[in-house]
Design a protein that fits this description.
10 helices; 21-stranded mixed β-sheet; alpha+beta; Anthranilate synthase; 452 residues; globular
């Protein structure tokens, strides 16, 4: 195909496919290369965006409009429980103009599937995967839309036309600054850090991850689209996501941590643990990075995560490779120790099975996992919900990608609940850990417009 198709040509191609007996098929057609799926996030209320997932640096964007089908987990279920129902949703032929234009499910899962959900998580459930009626895709040099069975050309034309006309809406600034409605319990945080560190020193367990929450509020509804624009601009190396619940609340964030991806049999995951601030001064920034690499505390914490990932993949992969020394992964306001781990999946192992094997990693839970979960329950007085759980997508061929939902928030109307956490080791200092977790709140606070 040469040149960009016009809107009339797009409609005609979809109509022809439906007319030729593909009414019950997935249809994937190219859109103009200038088309940006992200413009749908700022569309009119009639454009029912239910999920989005982006890798800005990798030039991959997925935006789902409407719901053709979904898989909802029951309380206590893990991600692998969605496997059979997910296969049913893909059970239709595909007529696509390019390989990336196939159906995908988008969604996520709770950090802990057991407890009943509390505010603001009531409508999110234990986990869900959504099949959009229309999935808008930008994947490298391919831009297009995938229509679920039964979606006709007229319905698609309305949405495509709005997105083309609204391409300039991406850079709309955030609204007025928000107020602090509920801050971190600083005294409680310091006490918990001190108690956990003492138990680690006593050899009861190796590590526990302590999370915190704060709530911000304003006088008008918070713009999800403006928040996502700020996140993708400030954190292009991250996984930028937004998942809407049935009550209209949206879980969004920019996570630096890949849980697992599977493509053509190749497994990739990331150990991310150990953090330090950035500096605007290049020499000081370099000094901070070297200090992180030389930190015995952070290296031990990081190695715990690497070891747990290797154990989780044992029996599921071959040719597993993990470098002996971590690298620095630098984000705008923080830098981490990072180790990329790769391998080849064994026959019979699928993406959701890998997600269940690896979640939760010691980077967001602790180690040993069972003990760390008990520590979290004893010290955290709020529901993590989907924070630190898996979020991502999967396709009909079993390929896909799930990130760990870090640097995240729930937005509902004029209110936002923010979440962040730290790994606590034996030599963790309560004041230093408080400063670090406050640093981790900054990306979302800034993207939401900051707070007064």
């Amino acid at each position: 195909m040469t040149g960009d198709p016009t809107l009339s040509e797009i409609e005609a191609r979809i109509h022809a496919r439906r007319r030729n007996g593909a009414a019950r098929a997935f249809v994937g057609v190219r859109l103009p290369s200038s088309f940006d799926p992200r413009s749908l996030l700022r569309g009119p209320a009639a454009v029912d965006v239910v999920a989005s997932y982006e890798r800005p640096q990798a030039d991959r964007t997925l935006v789902g409009v409407g719901i053709a089908g979904r898989v909802d987990l029951h309380r206590g279920d893990g991600p692998a429980a969605a496997r059979a129902a997910a296969r049913v949703l893909f059970d239709a032929p595909l007529d696509a103009e390019a390989p990336p234009l196939g159906p995908r499910l988008l969604g996520g899962f709770r950090f802990n599937p057991g407890p009943a959900a509390e505010e603001p998580w009531e409508a999110f459930g234990a986990g869900s995967l959504v099949l959009p009626r229309m999935l808008f895709v930008r994947d490298g040099d391919v831009t297009g839309v995938v229509l679920a069975p039964g979606v006709d050309a007229a319905e698609a034309k309305v949405v495509v036309a709005d997105a083309i006309e609204g391409a300039g809406r991406l850079s709309t600034p955030p609204g007025p600054p928000l107020r602090m409605a509920r801050d971190i319990d600083r005294a409680g945080w310091r006490t918990s850090v001190a108690n956990i560190a003492a138990e680690v020193r006593a050899g009861i367990y190796e590590k526990a991850v302590l999370a915190a929450t704060m709530r911000l509020e304003g006088d008008e509804p918070i713009s999800v689209a403006a928040t996502l624009h700020q996140l993708r601009a400030g954190y292009p190396k991250c996984h930028v996501f937004a998942l809407r619940a049935t009550d209209g609340a949206t879980f969004l964030g920019a996570s630096p941590e890949l849980l697992v991806s599977l493509e053509g049999g190749r497994v990739q995951t990331l150990a991310l643990a150990g953090s330090i601030a950035r500096s605007d001064d290049p020499a000081e920034d370099e000094r901070l990075g070297r200090a992180l690499l030389d930190s015995a505390k952070d290296r031990i914490e990081h190695e715990t995560v690497v070891r747990a990932i290797r154990e989780g993949l044992d029996g599921a992969t071959d040719q597993l490779r993990a470098p002996n020394h971590p690298q620095l992964r630098r984000l705008r306001n923080i830098q981490h120790l990072a180790t990329e781990i790769t391998g080849r999946v064994r026959e019979g192992v699928d993406l959701l099975g890998l997600v269940e094997r690896l979640h939760p990693t010691p980077a967001v839970c602790g180690w040993p996992r069972v003990v760390a979960r008990d520590v979290i329950e004893a010290h955290e007085d709020f529901d993590r919900g989907w924070y630190a759980g898996p979020v991502g997508w999967m396709d009909a061929e079993g390929n896909g990608e799930f990130a760990v939902a870090l640097r995240s928030a729930v937005v509902r109307g004029p209110r936002a609940w923010l979440f962040a956490g730290n790994g606590i080791m034996g030599d963790s200092d309560p004041d230093e850990e408080l400063a670090e977790v406050q640093l981790k709140f900054r990306p979302l606070a800034e993207a939401l417009g900051g707070f007064a």
